[in-house]
Prior knowledge:
The chain is an alpha/beta fold. It is about 35% helix and about 20% strand. It has two domains: about 5-150 and about 295-325, 3-Layer(aba) Sandwich (Rossmann fold); about 155-290 and about 345-355, Phosphofructokinase domain (Rossmann fold), CATH 3.40.50. Strands 3-2-1-6-7-14-15 form a seven-stranded mixed sheet, with helices on both faces. It has a four-stranded parallel sheet with strand order 9-10-8-13, with helices on both faces. The structure holds 6-O-phosphono-beta-D-fructofuranose (F6P).
Amino acid sequence: MTLKRIGILTGGGDCTGMNAVIRGITRVAVFQHGCEVIGIEQGFDGLIFNRYQELTTIGTREILSLGGTILGTTNKGNPFSYREFDENGAIRERDYSQQAVDNFNRLKLDCLFVIGGDGTLQIAYKFFEMGIPVIGIPKTIDNDLEGTDYTFGFQTATQVVCDALDRLHTTGRSHQRVMILEVMGRDAGWIALEAGIAGRAHIILIPEIPYQMAKVLEKIKLRQGGGSHYNIIVVAEGAREVGYSEITLESATTRLQGIKQYGGVGNYLAEQISREIDLEVRCTVLGHTQRGGTPTCFDRVLGTRLGTYAVQAAVDGKFGNMVALKTPDISLVSLKTLAGIVRKIPLTSQLIVCAEQTRISLGR
Ligand code: F6P
């Protein structure tokens, strides 16, 4: 089909590489198809409340190496159940989906490119069912999306973690301390495991393998017995001890917005270890540093490839699909098949075998 005017939006938590996609789509759309490109602002909010900007090749030429998203994003504005305050100050949920569809039609867009993670892509699919021609582009630092080998943002995040681990080694060794690094990833341990292997962690705790405290202590004591009085532990925010659930933060916003926010397992672990072992323990929580900064080369290339391929998919009329990395190619995966699936590390994964064969303890 001929594309005359297209829309792009970015939803969910930001990550590096989103701007690479925006730039890639814009360049192909303008240079190859002479198309107008509209950037919808702050995720689906922009579609609901009519906030957008025109994107040009000149305006997007500097953004390839820029973290975040120039369009802004949100991980709470679900148009199908939008949480807002009513006139009495109470929280209510409202369905803005038809308003978003009407605005899409008013903008006279031929299609909508939605760059997002699991939640955003599920919403995108619902809009596809309501008649919006949608192409999805997967993103997340967590790397937990079904249907694609890797998501952009993940590699940059693991590099941040790896760099932090290199630093924790020198200070931990100097003080003979147990250094714990809590990292993101929600219910999947990809960041912890890959960065932990790269950063020479002694213990890596991931959500897929509930840890036994006794095994963690055993590893520390084993190292002490061998004359190594410091330990580097990477713990994924969604990791949990056998018999317990994961640790979440209960903040005012979490309660109001109904979003589960992980956090606290690193300090919990620190407390547990310091009660049992005569070594000082320190915990570092990397938090959102993992999401920001300059994208790695891999994430820039992946974002650009997905963006350019997405335009071709739209020209071919392949709506309702997501562009995905199936190494070495980019291909299409139906958005329908992804709904709600979190891609965790399979317990049979060679990554797990590799970690344990190199004597990293996974707490089991
Ligand atoms: O999904 C990406 C992610 O960074 C998770 O790893 C993390 O749990 C969550 O988002 C943090 O979300 P927020 O930015 O809302 O604190």
